[in-house]
Specification:
The structure is a homodimer. The first copy, chain A, is an alpha+beta fold. Chain A contains ten helices and 14 strands. In chain A, a hairpin with a 2-residue loop joins strand 1 and strand 2.
């Protein structure tokens, strides 16, 4: 008993505040941030984790590679615009792309629940195959586990990815500079609303599809054109607001965002109003923000807009102050407010 | 309906024989083999998967790296000799070592079930940290997801690993040669029995502990001594029998094993008898087999026995015939039988 106590006392998260894991600990908001920053990262601290990047950039074989991982627990497994299989490929490909790397190799770890219909697994495998081809990556190693019925939820997939560098650009939160322009490659909120609509049986005039897509080609196009990209981040859990806040904190800068420059599809806007969701916090799976040297902003925007995954690109703001690491939003009616990180999440199991 | 039919008809596994995923599809036996070989690997076929290795050996940055993944769903989370955290580190480290690589970097993907006690997570994180230090690897990137209560089982962990090569030796199933000696680094069955005893509340005179341990140092010691290692395999799900059968098939050779050279702890033997388990099929987490050129066998054995993780090493057999890819066992009483791969598994969720 004593031993147990002295052990649990060391836990850096308050066990009386949070005796159990909550759904919100996985939601991309403040609680997840706290869990990871206070409890997990300090235990493993090393220069690779310290970058707070979407992946690690590792010295190997006289060069360097990018390495990243994500588990996918999205519910439902199939949704307009994608499924857990394509999501598991694109999500990890995108994390490598956000490091500035060319994604080359993926691993796949399947956790199957006993009783999963075999043809469901088959459809997911087929979808992964097509997604890997589209993203230009090879699945090179894998693992399959089965858990008893009632101890999983059909299928969870983990993918890890390895990418290589074809340039010397260093892309990461610490590289963001005062004055950098912040670009986005399209409208926000599609993935979250597509999932939510599927779960809740919402009907739209036309189906809202997830934006899920592989972003590496778009990024490499910018880099090979010589755009001075300082940082990239894809807008997944917690949406645009979480990504901006994480980077503002990691870079120690304040970002000023112009709400009018952030685009929303009309149906997504309507769904958010009905569901009481703020689209800034809704997940995307094919959207990124790029921090670009101010003098390159116009050229970067034009390059994005000439790519099929950047047609709706816009410049949404800039890195405006040296501190204190927050995000301000200039609203449509000209008022300014702080765009905070939410505590938990709006939508669980979005990816 | 028609579309659905034409789609499912393409599934290379018979959907009438196996309409659903069974626990046995994760057990390391014939069913798992079939699922992976017929349904998953052909979809992604490439030269890296074709090696049927524990990991992929990838050209990057002018050199090469080893890359592998495993998900861990062991139940219970804590057991004599380890826990899901240390297992998730050592298991992936070992897969890299079986490629002949020095493990350097790990990713960690946590799938937490809502309601998991926070101090359980903390103990597991602490254990991973200690295991990573012991194995000489750094955890460099990660991900945390939370699923609703009843849709997971406390915690599942995926780790992927990256390793580097300090030599030019090619280690893999295709390298096994006729006449190769087969070495093992100790007695078998400890991990499976430790888990089973914990689940079933079995009592022994002294506790049977899992053999879970990082094997890279042992392997690199053999390699740096110039031992001609042709292939390595760790003996996890499906035990010694599954590993031998997979390699016999992949290498297209027949292996002859001498049962008397395969060591068993007395308590493990007793537990197997009580539980009706064949120890050849029981999982290990700190045991490997090495295929070594016959002329190096004696020296390899001595080197193994001088390492703390190889004290109980022995030479258990040889690659005896050019075909047809099976394993024969010479029993203690001098009879010969085929050591087949079992269909499902003896123990679910062993790792």
């Amino acid at each position: 008993m004593n031993k147990e106590n002295s052990f649990t006392l060391q836990c850096p998260l308050s066990l009386s505040d949070y005796p159990h894991v909550l759904l919100a600990h996985g939601g991309g908001g403040r609680l997840m941030n706290q869990l990871i920053e206070k409890m997990i990262l300090p235990e493993f601290e090393n220069p690779f984790l310290k970058t707070r990047h979407d992946g690690a950039i590792l010295p190997v074989a006289g060069g360097k590679v990018a390495f990243t991982t994500d588990s996918y627990v999205v519910h439902p497994l199939f949704f307009p615009g994608g499924d857990i299989g394509s999501l598991a490929v694109y999500g990890t490909v995108n994390d490598l792309a956000m490091c500035g790397a060319r994604p080359l190799y993926l691993s796949a770890g399947f956790i199957l629940e006993e009783g999963l219909p075999m043809d469901t697994l088959w459809r997911i495998v087929k979808s992964m195959k097509m997604a890997a081809e589209k993203a230009g990556v090879q699945l090179v190693t894998g693992d399959t586990k089965v858990v008893d019925k009632g101890k999983g939820d059909g299928i969870f997939i983990n993918t890890a990815g390895v990418g290589v560098f074809e340039h010397d650009l260093i892309v990461g939160p610490k590289q963001i500079q005062l004055g950098d322009a912040i670009l986005i490659n399209g409208d926000i909120g599609r993935h979250g609303i597509a999932i939510m609509a599927e779960r809740e049986g919402l009907q739209f005039e036309s189906t809202v599809e997830s934006d899920s897509a592989p972003l590496a080609e778009l990024v490499l196009k910018l880099i090979s054109a010589g755009i001075q990209i300082h940082c990239l981040r894809d807008l997944t859990r917690g949406g645009l607001a979480a990504a901006l806040n994480e980077l503002a904190q990691a870079g120690g800068l304040t970002f000023e965002i112009d709400e009018r420059a952030v685009h929303l599809d009309g149906q997504v806007r309507g769904a958010c109003e009905i569901l009481g969701l703020d689209p800034f916090y809704v997940a995307n799976e094919g959207r990124l923000i790029a921090f670009v040297a101010a003098e390159d902003a116009g050229r970067a925007l034009a390059l994005m807009q000439s790519h099929e995954l950047g047609r709706g690109a816009s410049i949404i703001g800039k890195a405006s102050e040296k501190s204190p690491g927050q995000v301000t939003l200039m609203s449509r009616i000209g008022t300014r407010r702080i765009l905070d990180m939410i505590s938990g999440e709006q939508l669980p199991r979005i990816c």
